[in-house]
Specification:
Radius of gyration: 17 Å
Order of helices and strands: EEHEHEHHHEHHHEHEH
Structural class: alpha/beta
Oligomer: single chain
CATH architecture: 3-Layer(aba) Sandwich
Helix content: 40-55%
Length: 200
């Protein structure tokens, strides 16, 4: 499974820098794009066709957006091993459509708590839950899923898609997975260090 064809991608980003370029490349390769909230609105405003995540899962966003992507249809679609017939059969039986790429960057916790006047509640609301969960699911299954954590990676991914007929190679997927665990590790460390300083 050196090259995997990207057929469906989920894009949900806080930092929207350059995401329209990546999305246009994906669409030009025939990729269906799933998206949420502000990212969906941004892409639609750029004239890019998307399918909302709540249409994909059959469940609406709830709790003021705290729960959008925490759904079995999302995580099964990311974690299913493509080399195991029983995984594919379970997904098919449940009507779960596989996701081949995740593009996620996280709520800006670090920059939020850099402001010495930030309240505890403001800081807590910038602790991303769904984003790191999707990143980790996709990165665990890097043999079959490409995962993008930063606009800095878009050029590499676009070049891969354009040179490989809409596919991403295994070496790139592994590099992208490494970046996920580096990012989620530093993110969790920042949250830990902030909460150590909180006095109630």
């Amino acid at each position: 499974m050196d090259l995997i064809k990207i057929k469906r991608a989920l894009i949900s980003v806080y930092d929207k820098s350059g995401v329209d370029s990546l999305a246009r490349t994906l669409r030009a390769c025939g990729v269906e794009i799933l998206s949420t909230g502000g990212t969906a609105r941004h892409l639609e405003a750029c004239g890019i066709e998307i399918r909302s995540v709540d249409q994909f899962t059959g469940h609406p966003e709830i709790l003021d957006g705290r729960v959008k992507t925490l759904h079995p249809r999302i995580h099964a679609a990311l974690l299913a091993r493509r080399d195991l017939e029983e995984h594919l059969a379970q997904c098919a039986g449940l009507g779960i459509e596989l996701i081949d790429m995740v593009v996620v960057n996280l709520y800006p916790f670090e920059s939020t708590v850099a402001d010495e006047n930030v309240s505890l509640q403001e800081a807590v609301e910038q602790i991303d839950i769904g984003g790191p969960t999707m990143l980790r699911s996709a990165a665990k299954n890097f043999h079959a899923v490409a995962v993008v954590t930063s606009p800095d990676q878009y050029r590499t991914v676009i070049e891969q898609l354009e040179s490989n007929d809409g596919s991403i190679d295994l070496a790139t997927r592994l590099d992208l997975a490494r970046a996920v665990f580096a990012r989620t590790s530093s993110y969790d460390r920042a949250i830990t260090e902030y909460l150590k300083k909180v006095s109630l």
